[in-house]
Structure formats: C-alpha cells, structure tokens
C-alpha cells in the first residue's frame, strides 16, 4: 500500500454529475493499493497516517498529529501511485491492484482510518474520473509505503 499524504489548508474533489466533497485544514490522502494488500497493510497505514506528527505545536514545531488537532481528512483512490515509468514513456500499471481487488481494500482502509481518527473521513468516488484541488500547507507532502513495499 502506498500513500501520498499532504497537509492542507483545504481540499476538494469533484466528479461527473456534480458530486463534490471538501475539507478544511487537515490531510489529503491519495491511496494506492498493490496486489496482495490486506488487513496488515490497512492497519499499519491507517495507524501511521493518523499518528503522523506533521502539524505545528504552539512553538511552531511539527509535533502534533491529525488526531491531536481534530483536523479533517479526505481519502482519494489513486492507482497511478504504482505506475512503472522505468521503460518507455507510457507508464505501466501492473504494480497496482486491479479494480475489483482494490475496492474492498480501499473501503476497509477508510473504515479503519475513521476509527483511528474517531470521526468521519471524506472521500472521492472510487473508479470515477475526478478533479482534486488543494491548498498545500507548508508545503508538507509525504510518500509512505507499507513496510512490505518500501
């Protein structure tokens, strides 16, 4: 499992048909699922992201987690995080789990992440063509792989 985690002042996602979701200050998580990912990766990643100390404390040091700040979170499925660009100019996506395999993993991650944060998480729409907007805060952007895929 792989995630791009961005500390944001705000973020939004829209899709065809006018569907829209947005958050205020918090984290935007772009989540990629690899073949074979399961409960271990879900548990590890949800704990890691919810506990990341990347928000400023009163002294201006990155010492607070999303749980500490009570900020918002948004998770968007991003199969392209597993793109292979080593050969040619057209990315290959065989490193990403297939549509049907990844969907329950993505949904289970969201459930676990909500449990870790003790609040609802906004999401994109799995498999939809989406437009994601954000105002990165810092900027702070982290790439996180579960230990099995680092």
Characterise this structure.
With 150 residues, this protein is an alpha/beta fold. The chain has a single domain, classed as D-tyrosyl-tRNA(Tyr) deacylase (D-tyrosyl-trna(Tyr) Deacylase, Chain: A, 3-Layer(bba) Sandwich), CATH 3.50.80.10. The chain has 3 helices and 8 strands, in the order E-E-E-H-E-E-H-E-H-E-E. The strands form 2 sheets. Strands 1, 2, 3, 6, 7 and 8 form a 6-stranded mixed beta sheet that branches. Strand 1 and strand 2 form a beta hairpin. The radius of gyration is 15 Å and the shape is globular. The mean pLDDT is 95.
Q: How many DSSP helices?
A: 3
Number of strands: 8
- Order of helical and strand elements: EEEHEEHEHEE
Mean pLDDT: 95
Q: Indicate the overall shape.
A: globular
CATH topology name, in short, is D-tyrosyl-trna(Tyr) Deacylase, Chain: A
Unreliable residue stretches: none
Secondary structure layout:
Layout lengths: L1 E14 L3 E5 L2 E7 L6 H13 L3 E2 L5 E3 L1 H4 L2 E6 L21 H19 L4 E2 L6 E16 L5
Parallel strand pairs: 3-6, 6-7
Antiparallel strand pairs: 1-2, 1-3, 1-8, 4-5
Helix pairs in contact: 1-3
Quick structural gist:
24% of the residues lie in helices and 37% in strands.
Descriptors for this entry?
150 residues; alpha/beta; D-tyrosyl-trna(Tyr) Deacylase, Chain: A
